Amino acid sequence: MMIAPSILNANNLNLKKDIDEAVAAGISRFHIDIMDGHFVPNLSFGPQLVSDFKREFPSIKSEIHFMSDHPDDLVPAFVKAGADSVELHYEAMSEAKLNYWLDYLADHHVAGALVLNPDTPVKVIKPFLGKIKQVLVMTVHPGFGGQKFIAESANRIKEIREIAGSELPIEVDGGINDQTIKLAKDAGANVFVVGSYLYEAADFASQMQKLERIMAS
Ligand code: DX5
Ligand code: ZN
């Protein structure tokens, strides 16, 4: 089980300090939210952030949550920038395109994952199970940090765990805090994206420890 902090709600003018703090607290993977202003109504980071991140923190993994319906130029750009994994939304492209880009990622030794929005039927993951290294279950509608965990998500996680078997990592993203992490974990999730709960806390490390205690319980 692990926590992947989302830097979306970190201070953009202080990112190095905010990432250092997380690494000092034991984080080994970051969740980087890429928003294109089209697939979701917000804009965030581009490939340069990822290449800067990999230069400064070569041993820390970068997980790209790709919230865009323009994979053709952007997926290769993030791969070139050094992404360790790229998570593609089911809703953002055709199944043929998803297959194409998941194969592309595998050919480039980048872990591919499939992301499902809260309204997308969970059974759509079935044809992709042989190709993906992780499923990302959105527990809010994507676009912004600081939203409330959608309660129905726990059932969706359970269903996905049943479909996917025990080995595939299930990650959750949106509204994870000291209450909802337990709901997600009990439903079968094992990777937890945490944004505002960590980055709006006075003390990142002690907030992390709180979550780690719940994960271990
Ligand atoms: C939402 C993003 C999330 C978000 C998580 O679209 O995908 O990764 O930053 O932030 P919190 O934990 O504040 O919901
Ligand atoms: Zn995300």
Automatic annotation (TrEMBL):
What reactions does this protein catalyze? D-ribulose 5-phosphate = D-xylulose 5-phosphate
**Classification via Pfam families:** Ribul_P_3_epim
This protein's UniProt keywords: Carbohydrate metabolism, Iron, Isomerase, Manganese, Metal-binding, Zinc
Required cofactor(s)? Co(2+); Zn(2+); Fe(2+); Mn(2+)
> Where does the source fall among the domains of life?
Bacteria
Q: Which InterPro entries match?
A: Aldolase_TIM, Ribul_P_3_epim, Ribul_P_3_epim-like, RibuloseP-bd_barrel
State the Gene Ontology terms under molecular function: D-ribulose-phosphate 3-epimerase activity; metal ion binding
Assigned EC number: 5.1.3.1
Top-tier EC class:
isomerase
Protein name (database record): Ribulose-phosphate 3-epimerase
Assembly with partners or alone = Homodimer.
Tell me its family: Belongs to the ribulose-phosphate 3-epimerase family.
Q: What are the leading ranks of the lineage?
A: Bacteria, Bacillati, Bacillota, Bacilli, Lactobacillales
Q: Which GO BP terms apply?
A: carbohydrate metabolic process; pentose-phosphate shunt
